[in-house]
Design goal:
Elements: H1 12-24, E1 35-39, E2 45-50, H2 81-88, E3 98-103, H3 107-116, E4 120-125, H4 132-144, E5 147-150
Parallel strand pairs: 3-4, 4-5
Antiparallel strand pairs: 1-2, 1-3
Helix pairs in contact: 3-4
Amino acid sequence: MKDEKRKDYISWDEYFMGVAMLAGMRSKDPNSQVGACIVSQDNKILSMGYNGFPMGCSDDEFPWAREGDELDTKYLYVTHSELNAILNYRGGSLEGAKLYVSLFPCNECAKAIIQSGIKTIVYDCDKYDGTPSVVASKRMLDAAGVRYYKYNRTGREIKFTV
């Protein structure tokens, strides 16, 4: 008798959100580890990114602080995961691609997402919902026809078998 295929394999959303979250674990930010994964329409990974300082800007010399004088906080220096994923892409167009990201994009990342041609965003957390940055982001995404939806966590435990 022929073996039947497994039925408990992970969905594409689980797979790509897992990749995005794994990418976020590369971030050296002590407070926020955000990851992103850009996927083609035929489910191929095109690029990944995480939040961190631009190349050449030492994460030992630039500030990670969240409060204090503006020039002494991370906010003027950190590149968000979504923008890093877009900038890391070395192929052609991202037109029609899907972005998986662990935190809903801010207004600045929304601009880059729209301009790059990404058409769908799957996000895990929207903890800044209602803030001016996210309200502006959603306004622009809606106006540009970029679809977004919350990732549905399955609660599945990840176990590796070989």
